[in-house]
Amino acid sequence: MAKRKLQRYSELADLENVIELEDYSPTTISPLKGRWCERIFGNENPLVLELACGKGDYTLSLAKRYPNKNFIGIDIKGDRIWRGAVAAHHDQLDNVRFLRIYIDYVTNYFAADEVDEIWITFPDPYLGTKKINKRLTSPFFLKKYREVLKRGAFVHLKTDSPELFEYTTEVIEQEQLEVDFLVEDVHNHYHEQPDLDILTYYERMHLADNRVIRYVRFRP
Ligand SMILES: C[S@@+](CC[C@H](N)C(=O)[O-])C[C@H]1O[C@@H](n2cnc3c(N)ncnc32)[C@H](O)[C@@H]1O
Question: Which one is catalytic: 104, 116, 124, 180?
Fold first, then answer.
């Protein structure tokens, strides 16, 4: 691993707004499960997760817009989380935390009905049928989200991948899920949806490449 990355990984332990795994066993149940708002945020505000958060652009921007909600950015890459955590500390965002885990084990960390909303921002599309279960909108993951989300809560997906978007809409249809809003070209089609103006690190790169950004909000 590059020296700078290693440095950031070692600094993560000292950042108070980062929660890392003590061990990576799939069977480890977090003591924070069901108690995030009470133990970590000290309030009963709604809890929003950003999955595959990378540098946490949505987590940071939404936290500034909605100070009465709690936000947790989740990713496995520590050097990316480091950036978001340092920015949150700098901006004194008390309603932000970052959690370095595999999203695959999200149900070990959050209890039934604990989560109010999930954003999935520019996840890896994992093209190829062998990797289907790695896609963050596969039935494998949707089942897990359903376990932690409140009834009627939304999952938001923003992606540059037409393949992942098409796959997701197929899953939504197959599972007979309710789509609340869908836009095929976020930045060029007229809509009045809030928060789609927030740009992530990857989104900026995709826009520079003239890629089309798609968005769907649904109840899993
Ligand atoms: C293409 S990046 C997008 C980052 C950020 N959302 C953005 O738009 O700039 C995808 C991120 O998903 C994370 N990721 C993919 N699968 C994951 C998993 N199963 N658990 C945790 N993180 C995962 C990767 O570590 C990576 O940071």
Answer: 124
Question: What is 3-20+45-219's CATH topology?
Answer: Rossmann fold (3.40.50)
Mutate to test the pocket of ligand 1, among 5, 99, 124 (most ligand atoms within 8 A of CB): 124
Report the alpha-carbon distance of residue 203 to residue 207 in Å, rounded: 6
> Which has the closest alpha carbon to 215: 190, 172, 175, 181?
181
Q: pLDDT tens across 76-85, in order?
A: 999 999 999 9
Model pTM? 0.97
What residues are paired with 19 via a beta bridge?
99
126 CA from centroid of ligand 1 (Å): 11
DSSP state of 178: E
- CB of 137 sitting under 6 A from ligand 1: no
Q: Is the pLDDT of residue 60 over 70?
A: yes
Displacement of CA 91 from its chain's centroid (Å): 20
Query: Which one of 76, 134, 144 would you pick to mutate in the ligand 1 pocket, going by the greatest count of ligand atoms within 8 A of its CB?
Result: 76
pLDDT for position 193: 97
